[in-house]
Amino acid sequence: MSMAGNLRKVTGLSKVGDLRKVARLARRRPRVDLSHPARSPLGSSVVNCVRYRDGVRVPESGDLVDVVQKVRKRGDGFLWLGLHEPTDQEFAGIAELFALHPLAVEDAVEAHQRPKLERYDETLFAVFKTVCYVEHEELTATSEVVNTGEIMVFVGQDFVITVRHGRHGSLGPLREELESAPEQLTKGPAAVLHAVADHVVDDYLSVIDSVQEDIDQVETDVFAANGARVDPGRIYQLKRELLELKRAVVPLSRPLEELATRPIRVVEPEIQAYFRDVSDHLLRAKEQISAFDELLNSILQAHLAQVTVAQNEDMRKITAWAAIVAVPTMVCGVYGMNFDYMPELRWAFGYPLVITVISMACVALYRGFRRNGWL
Fold first, then answer.
1. 160 near 187, Cβ under 8 Å?
2. What H or E segment, with its residue span, contains residue 117?
3. Residue 292: exposed, middle, or buried by beta-carbon count in 10 A (0-12, 13-18, 19+)?
4. Which of 26, 155, 186, 295 could form a cystine bridge with 55, CB 3.0-4.6 A?
5. Strands, sheet with 123-133, edge to edge from the N-terminal-most edge strand
6. What is the mean pLDDT of residues 107-124?
7. Beta bridge pairs of residue 49
């Protein structure tokens, strides 16, 4: 027997009295082997559950409760349980089994939390905002650029529980990468917490690089010959999406600082050095986001200035043509009055003379406006 079937039963319990009751309920249904690739699904919310000892995956034949008791009795290794968008009922049994704090459980199930780090007795609870760049052929005023999700991590002395929300940010590749370097997993559950934090921050930097390409494209379009015709909605959309990215990155500074500097029971001093490296990467991401925000403000102001200049140029052209048209309008208006005695009214060359004078006046005005840059 393996612990997968029992795990599915535990996640289906709304209330569990003690570990023995969980074990009895779990043995009523067949179990599935857990020694499969990291990305294989297990039930509705359980992604994977693996025990590690000395940094190596250990196949287990008992149920989940027995494995947890075995790990705690021997005092070596730890259990890594991965979940994806569990419901209250699915998570209740696990929360009872690992003695998780109700407030942390509520946050893990409800999601939509800010990045934070909280300590509940012997358990550490961390929340990370994940981001994903949304590919698009052309940036428009309605294009989605950044998509966000969440990863919650419970860290104890002998277990790690990761709860993921959103369609991106899978931890399967991360698990496989850690298993390929078992020396990192030998450092315990805190090593998994560091790997998750490093994975999330690396995604920040990757998304920032992609967003920079969109900003560069908008900047090029704005300062092109017809930059005044660029849709300002594209710039506003980028600022909105950049705000989403900022909400994910900026609040994470304090949790990483605590992990890197303050003594925490489940985080060894050796691991804290790794968190300082992640904090440095996060600082770089924050600086780039701030620079992008200022750059977008400058681009928007430049675009508005271009629109103003273009409008002024249009008004000057309209004014110039109106002045040119005013000459024949005025002369023709004078001769349109029905008076018997008007200059050159009875002269045979009066009409050609008036037309010539009108044409010369219009040409002179045109050349004057052209020379001054109005036309």
1. no
2. strand 116-120
3. buried
4. 186
5. 56-58, 46-53, 78-84, 159-165, 146-155, 123-133, 116-120
6. 88
7. 81
- Please, which residues have CB within 8 angstroms of residue 271's CB and are 6 or more apart in sequence? 187, 188, 190, 191, 193, 194
pLDDT in tens, 80-106: 988 888 888 888 888 888 889 999 999
- Whole-angstrom CA distances from 143 to 33, 139, 195 are 43, 6, 32
pLDDT of res. 194: 92
Tell me the three state secondary structure of residue 185. Answer: helix
* Residue 183 scores a pLDDT above 50: yes
What's the pLDDT tens digit per position in 129-140?
A: 999 988 887 787
Residue 186 is given by DSSP the state T
Measured between alpha carbons, how far is 227 from 223 in angstroms, rounded to an integer?
5
CA distance 22 to 94: 10
**pTM recorded for the entire structure:** 0.74
Average pLDDT over residues 319-336: 79
Tokens matching residue 314: 């249009």
